């Protein structure tokens, strides 16, 4: 036996109404002779007939109750299916949102990494440029005596470097990056420093009043290495600066051309 429900929001008929309809159906069957052919005429007015009629009534009521239960079960199954569908949809949407959030997070991580690497490259480039840069040995000064100037003041008869005007105690800087190979008394140069530069040349700083570095120390462009003075063979305070091909006296080259070739205008 199959049971169907009409669609739409219709209320189910009451049990008494359903029972009445079922009894009416039975009465119709009885009138048409279906029930009458099954029952003996002699039993029509007896208690047995009433008992049989009551049994039929109970059977109809039980059938109606079964239909009601099946309908309730169908409603429960449909409700459960709807809940499951809503839950599945919510889970799918949650997974979609989580995946989208992860994509955004991954994109943010990649962007942050790219920005960090760009900053690191920029910092390395800046440091490389700084280390390769050259500066004047005395800030804001000028050359008071040029290269190879002639005078009896120098044992070679000519000036092996250039002199920068500087009062005693003026800061003297390394013109570029390098390693100190000499720091101490240098005879006619007084207190002097010699630095081997990164490009393999040498620079020398003489007549210092004090020395601020030691042999083996690395220096960077613009780093203070000492203070100017008038020690050694000097008529007054100044900085004697030389550019050399070796750390030794006599290997001097034009210091102005040397500084200008490294971007320093003097």
TrEMBL record:
InterPro entries: Cell_wall_metabolism_enzyme, Dup_hybrid_motif, M23ase_b-sheet_dom. The keyword Signal applies. The keyword Signal applies. Residues 96-127 are annotated as: Disordered. Residues 158-253 form the M23ase beta-sheet core domain. Coiled coil: none annotated. Keywords: Signal. Residues 1-44 form the signal peptide. PANTHER family: MUREIN HYDROLASE ACTIVATOR ENVC, PEPTIDASE-RELATED. This is M23 family metallopeptidase.
């Amino acid at each position: 036996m199959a049971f169907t429900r009409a669609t739409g929001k219709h209320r189910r008929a009451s049990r008494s109404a359903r029972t009445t309809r079922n009894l009416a159906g039975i009465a119709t069957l009885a009138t048409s002779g279906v029930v009458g052919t099954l029952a003996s005429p002699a039993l029509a007015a007896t208690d047995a007939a009433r008992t049989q009629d009551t049994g039929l009534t109970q059977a109809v009521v039980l059938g109606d109750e079964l239909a009601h239960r099946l309908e309730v079960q169908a409603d429960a199954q449909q409700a459960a299916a709807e809940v499951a569908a809503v839950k599945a949809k919510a889970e799918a949407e949650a997974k979609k949102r989580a995946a989208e959030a992860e994509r955004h997070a991954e994109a943010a991580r990649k962007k942050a990494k790219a920005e960090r690497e760009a900053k690191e490259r920029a910092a390395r480039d800046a440091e490389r440029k700084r280390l390769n840069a050259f500066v004047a040995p005395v800030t804001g000064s000028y050359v008071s005596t040029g290269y190879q100037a002639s005078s009896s003041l120098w044992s070679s008869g000519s000036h092996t470097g250039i002199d920068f005007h500087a009062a005693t105690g003026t800061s003297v800087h390394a013109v570029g990056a390098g390693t100190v190979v000499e720091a101490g008394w240098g005879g006619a140069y007084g207190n002097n420093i010699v630095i081997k530069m990164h490009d393999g040349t040498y620079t020398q700083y003489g007549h210092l009043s004090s020395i601020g570095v030691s042999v083996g120390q690395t220096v960077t462009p613009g780093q203070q290495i000492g203070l100017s003075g008038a020690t050694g063979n000097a008529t007054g305070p100044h900085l004697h600066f030389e550019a050399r091909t070796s750390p030794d006296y006599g290997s001097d080259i034009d210091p102005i051309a040397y500084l200008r070739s490294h971007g320093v205008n003097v």
